[in-house]
Write a structure and sequence with these properties.
The chain is built from 19 helices and 21 strands. Helix 7 packs parallel to helix 8. A hairpin with a 4-residue loop joins strand 7 and strand 8. It is an alpha/beta fold and about 575 residues long. Strands 11-10-9-3-2-1-13-12 form an 8-stranded parallel beta sheet. A 6-stranded antiparallel beta sheet has the order 14-15-16-21-18-19. The chain has a 3-stranded antiparallel beta sheet with strand order 4-8-7, with no helix packed on it.
Length: about 575
Amino acid sequence: MDFSLKRPELIVYSHSEMNKKLNVKRRKVPWWQNEIIYQIYPRSFCDANGDGVGDLKGITSQADYLRALGVGTVWLSPVYPSPMADFGYDIADFVGIEPLFGTMADFEELRAALHDRGLKLMMDFVPNHSSDEHEWFVKSKRKEEPYTDYYIWAEPKGFNETGEPIPPNNWLSVFRGSAWTWVEERQQFYYHQFLAKQPDLNYRNERVREEMKNVLRFWLEKGVDGFRVDAITHLFEAEDLSLDEPVASPSGTDDPLDYGYLNHTLTLNQPETFSVVKEWRDVLDLYPDKAMIVEVFGEEIEEVMKYYGNDSVPLADFPFNFLLIEHLRNRSDLTGFALKDTIDMWLDNMPEGKWPNWVLGNHDYGRVGSRFGADAVDALNMLVLLLPGTPVTYNGEEIGMVNTFISWEDTQDPQGCRYGPEHYQEFSRDPERTPMQWDHSPFAGFTQGNSTWLPVNENYKEVNVQAQLQAEESHLKIYKELAALRKEESFTRGHVAYPVVTFEIFSVMRYLEGYESYLLVINTSEGEVEVDLHHHSNVELPPSAVVILRSVTDTSNSTVPGSVVKLSELILVPGEGLLLNLIEEE
């Protein structure tokens, strides 16, 4: 089949340059390039002991589901001992298991269950801070050596008229307010970029650096396959603690206690960060086939790309690609042009030979179905699973879960709580963290107990795993088919082109000589669209194609999978994704 370019100048990058970047050829590739990464928020996945909170045994009980789903890697949000001030991101012991989630034996059972099914296990590594209840911090407050300088301590700038100490500078916490907390016992402030119960570790202290490398070694010896590194951009701050950060212009807020009020030139992306990431890379490289992925959010694309490293100084296997979250926040942002521009931004800036990834949501951002509309769930899953690169799926997105309304009385998230009953809904992350919906039994089959830590979404009787497995067509069945389909050569090694991109239409073609050629067409609008792909296309397309998959919202007899459709008169319902197999001309 001849896919010659009509206007090659329009998409030269689309395939030749990008394939050069990706080094597309037959070769052995790392496992994390072939697999879907599936994020599990342990509190909300499955509760085995009936206390209303998800646990490790609950995850183990769903190992067969995970295998059947078609994902290859399970990434766990933190399961370490914690006072739970920030639901596990305030860690009291980096090498233990939180009793709420189970025991180390439960963890080892989970790892074995996943490995027995050919699945990998990734852990969250949270290096920036510990809990204030960690042994290191307790001893640091007392100035017990060698822990005295394990954290960032500073003298007060002075004292106010009532004798209260003044913080050394104006630095702010991500969760609002000063990033400094006074400790009477030590007569100094300590620094925390997040909650006061999350004091920042001091990475200028070599002992701290070695301690955290030992944490990595501990879990590598336990058999984990890699790490997702949390909040990596916060690792260092300016050495001179007397310096103030400048007011952002524009800041987008007039609240001087809001994190966005300042331009964080002294507390984010400090150059020393990369030397520590390289140290971690060196530790992982002593163990075969281990992955390191880092969280870099809200930064300029050039800063994000630095975390790939280069051939001489390799760093992360990839930094998480949050562009689909940052640039496309709701349905009004979702256009064909916006999708193409967002994809290109990552691929255009990615260093040659590196590997892309695609992230639509996680435990910190609203569910895909709530941000873009339930009608767009299938189309967006098609997109991220069929683009070249590693897709990351947050648990529940495979069945199209949506945000749950959480009352002020039920709110748990400290980020939401800090803003009070009038504004908590703007900042709370609880709506996207509600329990996984397994079936139509009480509490959606999440627990056999009589309560859940967050309310279950009221739609659970219609939106659940069991119902979607039994339905003729469902989000879940489409997801499973995509997971299987993406293992074909056209997707693992194939070229990429974007035949038609308009305000309402986004399309991407995956093709490889000697193999099937596929075309994904997405209607990004909220209305039905009829499109003549030949009229708009910058690639020579055949007259017809066979429907492989379609969004569940499309109920037309003409697009039933297996049907032949004309590309000159393609009709798509709102938000639809239509995956086609291009028919070779005789």
